[in-house]
Amino acid sequence: MITKTQEPLIFEKSVSGRIGCNLPVADTPEVDLSEAVGPVRKEVVWPEIGELDMLRHFTNLSRINYGIEVGFYPLGSCTMKYNPKINERTAGLSGFTNTHPMQPEATAKGFLEVYASCMDILRELTGFDEITMQPVAGAHGEMTCLMIIKAYHESHGEGEKRKYVLCPDSAHGTNPASAARCGYDVKTIPTGADGNTDIAALKAMLNDEVAAFMVTNPSTLGLFEPNISEICRLVHEVGGQVFCDGANMNAMVGTTRPGDHGFDCMHLNLHKTFSTPHGGGGPGCGAIGLKSHLEPFIPGPAIKRGEDGEPYLDRNRPLSVGRVSGFFGQSLMAVRALTYLLAYGKQGMSAISRYSVLNANYVKARLKGVLPAAHDRPCMHECVLTAKEYKKLGVRALDLSKRLIDYGFHPPTNYFPLIVPEAFMIEPTETETKETLDKFCDALIAICEEARSEPDKLHDAPFTAIVGRLDEAAAVKNLDVRWTPASTADVAG
Amino acid sequence: MAVPGDLKYTKSHEWVRVDGDVATIGITDHAQSELGDVVFVDLPTPGRMLSAGDSFGTVESVKTVSDLYSPVGGEVTEVNETLGARPEQVNEAPYEGGWLVRVRMADDGELGGLMDANAYESTLEG
User: What pTM value is reported for the model?
Assistant: First the structure.
């Protein structure tokens, strides 16, 4: 049994004069730093600590951390799947880690081949003609698609005319944000009672001023949009482009392809769907796929295959929207994603989507009696349930989620999508066993029972974590992330 | 949920209190309850002209950021400056200390398109 205790900040453990390692005596002349580099901040405090205490500090922090390697992490819309260790092994090979982005292209053909192979497979999986892996996050990929769509309209002399981007009311907030960032006005399309896009409302908003429709499929309600090809046709009819938010690609891998549905472009989160690291901010890769008519506008330099099949850097991109990140994006993500794709192989690929959909439907079915689905129909890779029944007992979705921490699980996503009251969004992913899903469902059923018998108790949960219920409002209003020494005596030197 | 009888309401959960040609606007008890703890309110500068249905600001809670829509058109004459330091008034007293803006109405006929307390309350059921 690990007893969890608050770990002090490393600065609070600092004692003046302690050192973690002995540096060799300098054999070069001493230089006055402020003369060499200009004004030097004097108030900067560094922790002074021995190696063992430093090691204990970080080990203790890791023990109070929660991640996919500690337990189940059903955070909806986030695809917190297991990232196989073999990914790290290949990404750690010295041939990759010692490559410099500015070394001559001819000396980095192996790395270019990794990119090109990864792009070949992603092209086949998505049904698009072109892939670029330069964007470094999902929202970055969305924005890059919007920049490309804008450049496409401008190349037809329609840049001024097309000023609207349409998004469903269930969209991730990043969709309207990306559109606004690209200078578009955003209009919202309502979702019908069945959970699908309201086609009549969409038709009413479509005209030749629409630049694009951004839609997540499967939607953030965890439902496949059955009218997607008709939607794409309607948008194309008025000259608009259709962007697929690939947040939910895990439901489709190896089973169906957005490029075949009629989309013009999409983004992929390699850090979700293709098992590159996700927690702690990645680093991510928001690769995008595009149909050939958008290819001239992709960020440069583009990684292409020559007629001989050899990969090369195409720097002659006169219509390109320009670079969207330094060099080629997060290069080691290409190594990890390719490793993952090759490990599954073409035959195994559809198991990703089949098992992720099966797991989500299993959880949905097991919880039906306590947390019904917002839409009673088969879900895709995640299920959106509603805890609205508990509201009259004074228990909110957040209270149920916080109590899950006491049972050893990471809470699911709450209050998203915004159109579902007291939303409880669970995405198990394909990498969880039935035993884990059963334990999770048993815990949630027990918590819902607690909500009926002792509703007040849940307001203070969690009880076993090192900190209890946080005052989120105070945290937002009085954000303080800077440590300040208690007194000047604490300042070393 | 409190729904005072002397106010007018919108489908998007704003309320209006009319005093002569001045409309005081806020969000309803139901809205603040759905939003959760309000941490920031972004309000317009007095003098701004609004049409009915225009977004005049945003309210940010620990859960989400929502647009605020003006139930009536006219000129913004006053905003609730005290929400800068104490946005929680929107939760604590949505119909009193948590009011958002005052608008000098251009056309009080627009009030006819709003709901009374009974009609608004019935939209909250189910």
Answer: 0.89
